[in-house]
């Protein structure tokens, strides 16, 4: 197990999570090659009680003050076009690739499909776990398959789109039974008959304002980057995990009851007969926009984002999230779900 000698001890992860929590990890191992994985399997087979935590870009996790489990920093790199025909192109990327950089690389290859997901922080390997989405697109729309290594059995598995069980900000990989699966590579399928997704008004209006009627993938990407920068804080300037709550999906009946008391409630009809509410609007109406409790608070420009005002702990973040959930539930009868994963 020579490669395990590269273990680092008592490591601060403050610069490895976008919320900027100063979590101290007892042991950290950087995974830069799949050749390390059999060694890890042997270690966990010998010590099945040994826990582990996967850490990619740290953009969708809230860390505790102290982590006893072995932290595996996923730094697998590489991307390539693997197959091309008259209709589609298949592209693979290793799990440690930066997501936004990968999106820009696919656009540079003349491929459209991921441009609406531009500037989302994190890594390629973490993207399927959350089924990341923005501005009318989700990862699953271009997803083809992924490879994952089972640290308990030592086997590699390939998961199809159906096996990943993608849903709104959810997948099989957020379930407890998948937590021993380390995603190593993700494969995407791009349709050469690309059409832009411009259903979100902000995107269409900005493009129209620039005199662009038939945008390219790069023009859509640039527009979405500009919108995101205007609405969301840069983690390099103030710690945050992006959108902290899912937009709740509720019945039409509940939506109608809410509208009786709050006629300006923001909602979007869904094809399945339900509707989606704007979580940020609910949080703002509950009086939380711009408020601070201790070292954490709600971003003054976007109520959907929680921020670190300096020295925040995971416990403070959890307490603020629960307070917001309780107030929104009391006011609207809607329970907000958290997007980031809290590491215990």
Automatic annotation (TrEMBL):
It is found in: Cytoplasm. Residues 21-193 form the FAD-binding PCMH-type domain. Its EC number is 1.3.1.98. Its cofactor is FAD. The active site is at 169, 243 (proton donor), 339. Keywords: Cell cycle, Cell division, Cell shape, Cell wall biogenesis/degradation, Cytoplasm, FAD, Flavoprotein, NADP, Oxidoreductase, Peptidoglycan synthesis. It catalyses: UDP-N-acetyl-alpha-D-muramate + NADP(+) = UDP-N-acetyl-3-O-(1-carboxyvinyl)-alpha-D-glucosamine + NADPH + H(+). It is an enzyme of class 1 (oxidoreductase). Pathway: Cell wall biogenesis; peptidoglycan biosynthesis. The keyword Magnesium does not apply. GO terms for molecular function: UDP-N-acetylmuramate dehydrogenase activity. Its main location: cytoplasm. Belongs to the MurB family. Cell wall formation. NCBIfam families: murB, PRK00046.1, PRK13903.1. This is UDP-N-acetylenolpyruvoylglucosamine reductase. It comes from Undibacterium cyanobacteriorum. The lineage of its organism: Bacteria, Pseudomonadati, Pseudomonadota, Betaproteobacteria, Burkholderiales. The gene is murB.
